[in-house]
Each structure stands twice: as C-alpha cells, then as structure tokens.
Amino acid sequence: MSKKIGILTSGGDCAGLNAVIRAVVHSADQKGWEVIGILDGTAGLLKEEPDARKLTSREFDGTVMRMGGTILGTTNKGDPFHFPMPDGTFKDRTGEIIANYKKLGLDAVVGIGGDGSHAILRKLAQVGGVPMVGIPKTIDNDIGETENSVGFDTAVSVATEALDRLQPTAASHDRVMILEVMGRDAGHIALATGIAGGADVILVPEIGYDLEKIAEKIQKVKAGGRNFALVVVSEAVKKPDGEPFWVTHADGQKRYGGIGNYLGEQIAKITGSEARVTVLGHVQRGAQPTYNDRLLASAFGVKAVQLIEEGKFDRMVAWKNREVVDVSIEDAIAAYQEVDPNSTLVKTARGLGISLGD
Ligand code: F6P
To answer: Taking the CB of residue 111, how many other CB atoms lie within 10 A of it?
Structure first.
C-alpha cells in the first residue's frame, strides 16, 4: 500500500544528514511511496502553512550525499512544548505543529536528531498521533543504545586532521599545542581524536584532572627528548573547582568554550613552555561526510523505511555489533552515553602512555 512519509532534521547539523535523507528517499521510492521534506525542523511546522516540499529520487543525483549540512535546514532552539515568545513568556505551541502534520496527511515521520530532538519529536508523535521512527545523528556520539551516530566519524576525522596539522608547527617552534574540540557533555570526540592523532594528553569531562599531572606529563615528554607536546581537550571539561566554561553569544545562547585558553595559560605558567591554543568549533560539523558516515547514514535510512513498512513505530534505528537494528526511543534517550572510564578506548589511551590528566 502506498504511503506518504515526512522527514525532518532537528538539532545541530552534522556531516551525513544529506546521505540519510537520500537513503530514505531512495528506499521509499523503491516502494512507490511519497516523501515530504519538512524544512527547518519543527520550525517549518510553526508557520501558518507547513514549510515542506516533495523529495524525489531524481533530486539525489549523486552530489547531495557528498555535501555537509542538511538540504532541509534544521533548528536547535525552540522546544515547541515550551516555546520562547518575543515578550519573554513561554507558550505550548504543539497544537500548531500537530495541525500542520495533519495538513500534510502523513502516514509516518522520520525524525533525524540527537537525544534532545528525539525526546521532543517522540512527545509530538504521541500527542499528535503521528507515528515516528528516529535516526540518531550527533557529532557528540552521546545517544544511548547505539554504538555510533551519524556525524561522529566525520567530526573525529576533521579533528584528527587538525592534530596532523598542528604537530609539525608544534615541532618547529618547540610548543605545546592545545586543541579544544566539541562534545557537549561527552568526551568521545576528544578521546578518539587524541588517540588517532597521537596526543600526549587527552582531557574529557568524565575524568577529573590535576594541572600538576598534566605538567608532569609534558615535562616527561621533554625530558625524553621531544621538543613539543599535543593536548586535546573537550569543550565540556570544567575548571578544577567544577565551574564550566561558558560563552554567551550575542543572541543570548550559552555554549561551552574557554577551557583551551585556560589550559594554555596554566600549562605555560607551570611548565615554562610556550603554549598555543586552537579552538576547532563548527568546522567539525561542516565537512564532507566520511565513507563511514555515508555507510551508517545509508543503513539507517533504509532500516527506517523498513520499520515504517513493518508498522514498527516509536523506534530508533541503531548500530550494534556491525548490524543495523532498532531500539526503543525511550531507552535510547534514557541511556545517555558518556565516556566510560573503563572503556577500551580509555584503556588504550592509558596503554599508549597518554595522560588523561588524573
Ligand atoms: O551537540 C552538537 C554540538 O556541536 C556540540 O558539540 C556543541 O557544544 C554544540 O552543538 C554547539 O551548538 P551551536 O551550533 O548552537 O553553537
């Protein structure tokens, strides 16, 4: 039976989103279904008329899957259950979204998002009676019940390449190079990048650190005859007193930022080394997706369409033991995935002699 399915990207963008959209459209096309792309996430449903357009296989001619960003647009603000209004009040605007879902006449919605987006989209699906299937994406790789989320591999590749570029200039100038990477609350990007990029110190929010221990490691590297050191730090690492480093942007939004500069000053002060700081920021999100992210995106997209066909809703596609599977969205949101201090990668880092600051 023919179906009409909606698809939207929600939350911060990342590499691989277009490859997911392509996979869903191609897979639905095989079944003769119609796909409607909802623009700008839930913001596209908060208009008088739904901001949406038909997506066809023809549009995905081979260029789109290679592109970073999302052709549908996205939003990472404005929880419709508690929507900030211009007068400073908050309003429940879910009725408007559900009315627009209904106007589109959708049989199901594919929501591509992180844990926050999955929580909101799930609630909307329940209240509005629009069945949903979720696809996990986030460079932070912190969604539970899946080993990988779309966008993580590309972000780590970009950050590793940054370390590759920092190493020769660090060696040329006898410097300590500090690379601050993203990862709102989880240190997966920092950990993977630090191992892949040959860092001497990796700091993640899940493991406490001592500045003296970091200094000791750097002195040891120098005593061993190497004239430079590489440090990778996750943006979510706090000051030793537990205070987080925030930046408040002009639009009033608070984001992590500042730990890299703090570390640079402290390391220079304690070790007497020259230190420089690079804050990688959004370049981790805007790259062309790696082959791994394209594979994950393709497997997730095809599986999502299969779940809709089978009538399996309130499920999120996931990657486990080299297979694409489906898990309950509720479980995925509940099982936030931070860096486990006993994990293989933490043990690997320690085994390589990398300091985790503790
Ligand atoms: O959650 C993804 C993420 O890129 C985090 O790693 C980062 O802290 C945050 O989003 C940045 O958000 P924004 O794009 O709003 O600055």
So the answer is: 27
Q: Which atom of ligand 1 is nearest to the CA of 140?
A: 6
Distance CA 168, CA 184 (A): 29
Cβ atoms of 135 and 316 closer than 8 Å? yes
Encoding tokens for residue 332? 């995925």
Per-residue pLDDT of the chain (358 residues; tens, 9 = 90+): 899 999 999 999 999 999 999 999 999 999 999 999 999 999 999 999 999 999 999 999 899 999 999 999 999 988 999 999 999 999 999 999 999 999 999 999 999 999 999 999 999 999 999 999 999 999 999 999 999 999 999 999 999 999 999 999 999 999 999 999 999 999 999 999 999 999 999 999 999 999 999 999 999 999 999 999 999 999 999 999 999 999 999 988 999 999 999 999 999 999 999 999 999 999 999 999 999 999 999 999 999 999 999 999 999 999 999 999 999 999 999 999 999 999 999 999 999 999 999 9
Q: Which residues pair with 233 in a beta bridge?
A: 180, 203
**Marked catalytic residue, from 40, 115, 140, 326:** 140
Structural domains of the chain in order of their starting residue, each with its CATH number: 4-150+289-320 (3.40.50.450), 155-284+341-351 (3.40.50.460)
CA of 184 to the centre of ligand 1 (A): 6
pTM, two decimal places: 0.97
User: Which of 149, 184, 204 best tests ligand 1's pocket when mutated (most atoms within 8 Å of CB)?
Assistant: 184
11 vs 76: CA distance, rounded Å: 4
Structure-block tokens of residue 179 = 């690379």
Whether 340 is a known active-site residue: answer no
Which residues on adjacent β-strands are paired with residue 4? 34
Sign (positive/negative) of CA torsion 131, 135, 139, 143?
Answer: positive
Identify which of 113, 154, 157 has the alpha carbon closest to the alpha carbon of residue 133. Answer: 113
Q: For residues 6 and 8, give the distance between their C-alpha atoms in angstroms, rounded to a whole number.
A: 7
